[in-house]
């Protein structure tokens, strides 16, 4: 049983005169816990950004593009990369703002509102990342299909043989691969941020009881 549970137990058992003090104590505890959770969301997002940036540097996509002679794709991929970095930095700044607001709150209602805002920011961030992963996977398939010499046999089969069946099978493989890729990252983000979001939701429910 953690400190919050002990305070709630004392609140229910003691006299009415003690309840007001206990409400304040519970609020302070929830405030401190919420601030800590949002701080961890900020820290994790920064670490995640650093890891992806390191992976991008270590596995240089320019070399892969040159080996496939797909230089025409390079410009668009760079734009997509820069836009992605800018959006992720914006989300990190939004996480910092959420942390700064929650750390200085003195009102129960305001704390509840900022908890909801913090949860929505994380949800938007996760959905943005999943969409970008889906777009990147599709672009990878398109680039491989157009420029990879190993795809020549498949393209000939689509053009001259059972085009409908081959094309249908190819599309099915692409769709299944995209769904699996997005599904794996969805599970990753659910594990990474889901626990923190559930704790924030629990804090919100406890604050709602106090605010009644």
Automatic annotation (TrEMBL):
This is Beta-carotene 15,15'-monooxygenase. The chain crosses the membrane at residues 37-59, 79-96, 125-147, 167-189. The keyword Transmembrane applies. Keywords: Membrane, Transmembrane, Transmembrane helix.
